[in-house]
TrEMBL record:
The lineage of its organism: Bacteria, Pseudomonadati, Pseudomonadota, Gammaproteobacteria, Alteromonadales. Residues 1-19 form the signal peptide. Coiled coil: none annotated. Keywords: Signal, TPR repeat. TPR repeats lie at residues 185-218. The keyword DNA repair does not apply. This is Tetratricopeptide repeat protein. Gene3D superfamilies: Tetratricopeptide repeat domain.
């Protein structure tokens, strides 16, 4: 179960544009294409956008391609996302671009464990710098929660920490937001996964239902609820 989650749903993370200002239209289109697993549309969006939007489209493309078994496409999309985000890191780094970069590194490690030696530290540094720039950013806490969930305990991972960090992210989403506002549904979903690993199945189900309340078309939480129903029936 956890292996499937690590490979197929490492982060359904949304994001922002970063050319001059966030592009809500681009983000909405990318999310819609991702929810319907439309690889062709995601490829088109990754080609027609720039900066953060380009990285985000490639990141979503990588996740969808990986779920559909297209590993080569997933790998190339992550490389493209990394390139775009590292360029932003050099020219105009902010907490949002650094947080997504940390997650891009994390997914690359998940797809190829041999990259952990080189990208693990880069991922940790990116999220640490993001937190320094925006210590109360909910997405920073969310990325840290995902890392805590997916990192083996021998390397500092912890389901309890994942749960705590996801709760922190959820609390921060209550703050007024008028710029970059993604991630609340993901935070509930990852907290539910941590609760499930800790043996709190009912708490996990409640969080996944809450994720759908936040985002009605959020397919990952729906999938987890269906999967849980199937397991319960058996």
């Amino acid at each position: 179960m956890k292996t499937f989650l690590l490979v197929s749903s490492l982060a359904l993370i949304s994001s922002h544009a970063f050319a001059a200002s966030p592009s809500n239209a681009n983000i909405t289109n990318i999310d819609a294409a991702s929810n319907s697993m439309n690889l062709a549309q995601l490829q088109q969006l990754s080609a027609s956008t720039q900066d953060y939007d380009k990285a985000y489209a490639n990141y979503r493309l990588a996740i969808s391609a990986n779920v559909m078994g297209q590993k080569a496409l997933a790998s190339s999309a992550l490389t493209n996302a990394q390139t775009a985000l590292e360029a932003l890191e050099t020219s105009q780094a902010d907490a949002e671009s650094l947080a997504l970069l940390s997650s891009v590194y994390g997914m690359q490690i998940a797809l190829d464990n041999s990259k952990g030696a080189t990208l693990g530290m880069k991922s940790a540094n990116a999220i640490a710098n993001a937190e320094q720039l925006a210590p109360h950013n909910p997405r920073v806490a969310l990325v840290k929660a995902i890392a805590a969930y997916n990192t083996p305990a021998m390397f500092g991972g912890s389901m309890q920490n994942a749960k705590t960090l996801a709760t922190t992210a959820i609390e921060r989403f209550a703050q007024p937001c008028d710029d970059i506002c993604w991630g609340e549904a993901e935070a509930y979903t990852w907290r539910g996964l941590a609760k499930q690993e800790l043996g709190d199945t009912q708490g996990a189900i409640e969080d996944w239902h809450q994720a759908i309340k936040v985002q009605a078309d959020y397919g990952w939480a729906k999938f987890l609820l269906q999967q849980n129903q199937q397991l319960s029936a058996n």
